[in-house]
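Morning run. Coffee first, then this:
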Amino acid sequence: MEQNPETGPSPGAADPSPRRARRTLAALGRACWIAFLAHTLVDLLTGLRAPGGWLLMAAALGSQLAAALLLRRDEPRDAAPLTVAPPVTGTWSALNSPADRVPSHGIRKYGQSHAIDVVAERPEGAAGPGRPRFGWWPPTRRNADFPAFGAPLLAVADATVLTARDRQRDHRSRNSWPALLWLLLSGSVRDVISADRVVGNHLVLDLGGGTYALYAHLRRGSLTVRPGERVRAGQELARCGNTGNSSEPHLHFQLMDRPHPDTACGLPFRWAGVGVPRAGEHFTVPAPATG
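And here it is:
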């Protein structure tokens, strides 16, 4: 079947009704939130008490709730985990993980029910400071302070590149209590704009058999592949960054049953030789042999 890198099947192909409905509800919800924000801004600037603001908010919330219910109904049941190669090498630890709970990030939206976040750690005994921990000070840090920033990201299987974007800028870290409010507020704004603003710079691979791999929060300008290119397992694809809705440089990885997170359901996975690490669990992946 011919595939469109953004939405899946070509326009002439049938798209299941629940997915079309979810896409429509997502667009309606975003439109209502934007209209509500515009309504509120006009109200504040002009002092006019125009009616309809609360109706717009109710419509936005109702659209999101309906989309969430359709997603829950559409999600595959008892899908067997697909074993793929790890997308990183070196010493890392997991943050949000499907080994602890599903959905791993608290919501199923954007196909992230089985997603995992991983951050690089300084290997034991290695020179240099370790990864900065969440705390009160400083409010933000340079990305270079984190071992994950610029780490190579590898193809988890032989695949075809569907989407490859790396033009969004890398922002400073927000892994502190003072920056947490800004992270939540900016995340809400990104969610209203589009899924692309949430995942930041990202890459989607078609693994075949209706399975797609998403790599999110990539470093700006780090992509080494283009849409349509065929890649092999272990090939470097991009570098780890801090774009989109991200508190610090890290990789957000997930498998999906559709190529775009707006219409996808999450799929379970396992990394060969690693499994699915729990939150806080360290794991080490040796670099691939060369020569």
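Helices lie at 17-46, 53-74, 177-193, 195-199. Good start to the day.
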